[in-house]
Amino acid sequence: MGGWLRPRKNPYQAQGLEPGTNLRLELQVRDQPETLVTTVEEVDGDQILVLVPMAHQRRIHVPSGSLIHAEYTRGRQRYRFVTEGLGPTPDGTLDRLSTPARIEVSDRRRSFRLDTILRPSSVYRVVLESEAPTAPELVGCTIVDISEGGVRLSSRTSASVGELLGLDITLPESERLVARMKVVSAHEPPGGRLNWRIHCEFANLARHDRDTIARFLLQRQRRLRAEGRL
């Protein structure tokens, strides 16, 4: 007679996302930003069941299809992930959230970075002096990774640390994003290559634009997970 199979460990438990975990949720409710608090009741591979969140001493159901920025702490670590509302359970006592493709430790990396190849409509230098001539665009510019915090560019044209750049791009299966970025590092092309690697942080990104990026990342994470590449 064979031995008993050991139960499979929930992959989220190692990062503290388990029953009893308190979650802080940021989302839009009736076109207004809301910060809600709730507690995890159950986690499996398909969904997270949580108590109906509270705000201002009242219960507020998470709207189905809403984009949610979730955060929780475990010990001295802070964890963040992006999820989506799936609607309440049939009896209305709990709300359902989609399980995240990844959970990030915020003190190591502020947000999930996606390796990609995206060609913006334009990336241009921002000139603050009204009398200055129009600044040229960066030539041959491609986004090679993107996160809620910023992008990494591959460009034939160099940029200086501290310089402000403008970005205009329509994200695949998403919306147009127009944003300002600050250059935090720029690396010369290695031997035999032509393109600079330019790391940028978004500057004063609006909540709507942040959600546009988060929704794009969430869609891509789901696709990669379904294809077994994440």
What would you say about this model in short?
With 230 residues, the protein is mostly beta strands. It is built from one helix and 16 strands. It is elongated, with a radius of gyration of 21 Å.
Structural class: mainly beta
Strand count: 16
Q: What's the arrangement of strands in the largest beta sheet?
A: 10-12-13-16-15-14-11
Instruction: Enumerate how many helices there are, as a single number.
Output: 1
Q: Shape from CA axes?
A: elongated
Largest sheet: 7 strands, antiparallel
CATH class of the largest domain: Mainly Beta
Terminal residue distance: 37 Å
Percent helix range: under 10%
Order of helices and strands: EEEEEEEEEEEEEEEEH
Strand content: 35-45%
Low-confidence stretches: 4-8
Overall pLDDT confidence? 84
Please tell me the total number of domains. 2
Please, could you describe this protein's structure?
The chain is built from one helix and 16 strands. With 230 residues, the chain is mostly beta strands. The chain folds into two domains: 93 residues, Pnp Oxidase, Chain A, CATH 2.30.110.10; 113 residues, Beta Barrel (Thrombin, subunit H). The strands form three sheets. It has a seven-stranded antiparallel beta sheet with strand order 10-12-13-16-15-14-11, covered by helices on one side. Strands 1-2-3-8-7-6 form a six-stranded antiparallel beta barrel.
